[in-house]
Design goal:
By secondary structure, the chain is mainly β. Helices cover 6% and strands 47% of the residues.
């Protein structure tokens, strides 16, 4: 069987075989052993123990043998019994569970002995993670399978996997003789999962589930969290599945859980609209954004493949939008399979800041309206830059937002003023990305000279008077040269007076 399973060329016999294999996953058996088309045997349940082995064994198992739940979710399991002969007494001395992950709420009788003469729910210890002494007896022996008891749990607020371990199980027959049994333990994984719902406007529907748990594999070998998809229904239909690169029947996954945690994962998602006509239609994929709350990823992006351009393109950000609508394509007298990628990424890389530069006005001036400083830099990130700001130290510390002006180039324009005798300042650029990673440049030093330090030597001396005297009487736009100390457009006595008021300052 290959990815073209849905084509008309597939024989009825092969389709029936697929149905039989898939049915095993929807009507679980205790052993959960799957025989594939290439005659390989895949066992996806390792927690099996045989007690008093005989030719015919009664099976006692946790049902379902494996399941994924979310933090805080209340769920049920049962201890299921499949007798090999009429039985009338069942005793489970102890059931272990991880109390850091699960809280046991109650144990109630099942339906295998209907009615029970006596049922004991046992003693629950949520500190040690045990329930001891579950027993049930009937005076009417039964060989019919059923639930011995049903157990309610609530998942705690930690991601992990708890084994449900049955110990010292005894089953007796109508002659009060202990029968040989096979005991199959179970497990419950607390993880995160998201259901994707596919809806076509005429009412056709399908869904798939993806997520992560601590004990799942990425790819081969298949594990108990890889659930194959059922065969195609009758036309028209939507059929959706995940492809994790595994052999059949795991090449069409209904539920695809991967190992938790990670920094990046890609789920390969396929969808096939099949109809007996070529009428155009739209399909909407929808999901609950809150289901991503417990995942470790900062970004989950849906991408769609364009088979004609032979490239992937951005479809939507799944943490922001809760749906995406697309139109399946009909080409060469068949409906094409639509290919998607779900790219989940944990952003651990900070932005990179380069090419930091400060350009002052010419002439340099410290008064608003006459002087300014332009600061530019280049900021890049593997995902997306969030905030870039300029940090100024000195007499008056400032934090100034920087804005993008050309791709990755950021810019701000400010006018810095000098107070008192301070002339040395530092500036650095700080940036973060939408994943919360940040970067800072090494502080750079620059000097702002007072307007009355006309020759910019850090000293208020005779040379400053000489500079002004060389332009005495000239006029121009306000602040057009440094000799226009008071920025009134005239080189006059007032400029000398300002210099004289600071004469002797500086080293």
């Amino acid at each position: 069987m290959n990815r073209m399973l849905g084509k008309k060329s597939v024989s009825f016999l092969k389709a029936a075989m697929v149905f039989i294999v898939a049915l095993a996953f929807f009507i679980p058996s205790p052993a959960m052993v799957v025989e594939t088309f290439d005659d390989t045997i895949v066992s996806i349940l390792p927690h099996t123990q045989t007690v008093n082995k005989g030719e015919n064994n009664t099976t006692v198992s946790i049902h379902p043998y494996a399941q994924v739940v979310k933090k805080g979710e209340t769920f049920n399991v049962s201890i299921r019994v499949e007798p090999s002969e009429p039985i009338m007494d069942i005793n489970v001395s102890r059931l272990f569970f991880d109390s850091s992950l699960l809280h046991l709420n109650s144990v109630t009788e099942g339906d295998i002995f209907d009615p029970y003469d006596t049922f004991t729910s046992g003693i629950v210890n949520n500190t040690d993670g045990t329930v001891t002494g579950i027993s049930g007896i009937t005076s009417n022996a039964t060989a019919s399978p059923g639930d011995f008891c049903r157990i309610s749990f609530t998942a705690q607020e930690t991601i992990g996997t708890s084994l449900l371990d049955l110990e010292y199980v005894v089953v007796t027959n109508s002659s009060s003789v202990e029968v040989p049994i096979i005991v199959i333990d179970g497990e419950v994984a607390i993880g995160w999962s998201v259901t994707l719902n596919f809806n076509e406007y005429s009412g056709k529907y399908d869904h798939v589930v993806f997520g992560e748990v601590l004990t799942a594999n990425d790819g081969s070998p298949p594990d108990s969290y890889d659930i194959p998809k059922a065969p195609e229904p009758q036309l028209p239909y939507i059929r959706t599945w995940f492809d994790d690169g595994m052999p059949e029947p795991y090449d069409f996954l209904w539920e695809d859980y991967r190992h938790y945690p990670d920094t990046e994962k890609i789920w390969n998602l396929d969808a096939h609209w099949e109809s007996n006509n070529s009428d155009p239609t739209d399909i909407t994929i929808s999901w609950d954004i809150s289901e991503f709350n417990d995942c470790e990823y900062d970004f989950v992006v849906l991408r769609k493949y364009d088979p004609f351009a032979e490239e992937w393109y951005f479809a939507t950000d799944m943490l922001i939008s809760d749906n995406y609508t697309y139109a399946p394509r009909y080409f060469n007298e068949e409906w094409l399979i639509d290919h998607f990628l779900i790219n989940a990424t944990m952003d651990t890389t900070p932005p990179e800041i380069t090419n930091v530069a400060l350009t002052p006005s010419d002439p340099l001036d410290t008064e608003h309206g006459f002087g300014w400083e332009n600061i530019t830099c280049t900021v890049t990130d593997n995902i997306l830059v969030d905030t870039v700001q300029l940090n100024i130290t000195g007499p008056i510390p400032q934090i100034i937002p920087m804005v993008p002006i050309d791709g990755d180039v950021f810019f701000c324009n400010i006018t810095l003023t000098v107070v008192g005798n301070y002339t040395n300042h530092t500036y650095h650029v700080w940036a973060d990305d939408i994943g919360g990673n940040s970067a800072t440049t090494t502080p750079e030093t620059f000097t702002l000279y007072h307007n009355w330090d006309v020759n910019k030597d850090g000293k208020i001396r005779l040379k400053d008077f000489v500079c002004v005297a060389g332009h005495y009487g000239e006029t121009g736009p306000p602040g057009w040269i440094r000799e226009d100390v008071n920025n009134d457009g005239k080189i006059r006595l007032k400029d000398f007076v300002i210099i004289a008021g600071h004469y002797g300052e500086g080293s």
